[in-house]
Amino acid sequence: MPDKENETTRIHVYELRIGMCICRLEVGGEESAYMFYRFDIKTQADIQAIQSICDYVLIDNNWQKQAIPQQVKRKETVGFAASFEQVAQTYLETGNLIKNVMDDVRLGKPFSVKAVKEAAAQCVDKVLENSDAMLLLTQLKHRDQYTAQHSLNVCVLAILLGLELGLSGDDLKTLGLCALLHDIGKAKIPLEILNKPGRLEDDELEIMHKHTEFGRDILMSGPHIVPEAANVAYGHHEHLDGTGYPQGMEKNSLSHFSKIVTIVDAYDAITSDRVYQQGRPHLTALDILVRGMYTEFDAGFVMHFINCIGFYPQGNLVEFTNGEVGIVVEQNKNDKLKPKVLLILDERKTAAPERLLDLAFNSYDNNGMPYKIGKIVRAQDYDVNLDRFHHERKFTRSYEIVG
């Protein structure tokens, strides 16, 4: 039924069509107080994501108008494989820089703000040049390098989300800087607490929570730092409903940059192996973000994050309903539920001849049944070394597609 005053219409989610613009969700039978500035339905996967969250939405009655273009456009590239090495080199160099910054802070030495700003700008350039490659690199986890890699992953994911939200080039660079330095306060946490393999005691958890205050103080005392970075370091564990820390601030007190970093920080932490817990699969992390909408996380930003990262990102291991296992090597831009998958294990979970499936086309197994993804699984659970596939260029190689 149309609402003339607000120019919106309430519809069931099964009435959604590509091209519509959602401006409000109804979650848990109640209309949310949160208004999206806009969330455009671009693919069938977007529709399925909304259908998994709620039953009714409000759409903009003017949804047929041309969508607002993003302020920053992705650069034309010569292809994934051709630019991958440069992107990987930037990722490696930035990760090393962040490790050195954390070491300098831990030792009481000054760090180069200029170098971090330049690294953030480089990350923006590489995301614009080859967002698929940068996203792939965030999926290759290393537990022994968690702190530095986490900061880098949060930077890349934040830039991807910022690009999806239509931020300007300057804002993307500032957001990247904020994300790179969001956990700098952990350099002041005693290593026996930071690296403790078991559950933290209450007093230890209280000390760990102080990394947000330490981060703000470090960044406020340094020369040439932008205030946004200190705000994000201080506020990236705050929740919209005021249940976060260190101050219990509510949504109206949180900056857009803080809300963005909070989402991608949680996603990378959930999916990464750490000294005290195993990482969880990608779709589990998305489910946690969705369940935290309106309480912990900005709902509009969560939906845009799902849209930009996809349901089956490159580098994830998927198990088909017939038991075979493969690695997602390329997303399908037109249908995010049907990626290209490199089969590596048979139904008994033993090594199988590698072959590529393009799920956008009909592909059948040896029993004549269509291939369907059952779930995303952890590489460690099947003793799969994703680094080997990365170094052997399995993500960039050309394969004959089998049916």
UniProtKB/TrEMBL annotation:
CDD domains: HDc
InterPro entries: DUF3391 (IPR021812), HD/PDEase_dom (IPR003607), HD_domain (IPR006674), HD_GYP_dom (IPR037522), HDIG_dom (IPR006675)
Record-annotated HD-GYP domain positions: 125-321
Annotated Pfam families: DUF3391, HD_5
Identification of the protein by name: HD domain-containing protein
Coiled coil: none
Residue ranges constituting the HD domain according to the UniProt record: 147-270
